[in-house]
Amino acid sequence: MDLKSSHASPVLADPTPVNKSRLGVHSSLLPYSQTGTSFSSSMYISIPRKNKPGVPDDVRSNGWLDAMLSSSPPRKKLIMDMNSDAVVTDETADNAYASWMLKYPSAINAFEQVTSAAKTKTIVMFLDYDGTLSPIVDDPDRAFMSDGMRSAVKSVAKYFPTAIISGRSRDQVYKLVGLTELYYAGSHGMDIMGPVRFDESDNHLNYHSSTDKKGKEFNLFQPAKEFIPMIDEVFKTLVKNTKGIKGAKVENHKFCASVHYRNVDRKNWPVVGQCVHDLLEKYPRLRLTHGRKVLEVRPVIDWDKGRAVQHLLDSLGLSGRDDVLPIYIGDDRTDEDAFKVLREGNQGFGILVSPFPKETQAFYSLRDPAEVMEFLTRLVNWKEVNDGVAVSAASVPGGQREC
Question: Where are the transmembrane segments (predicted)?
Answer without folding.
Answer: none
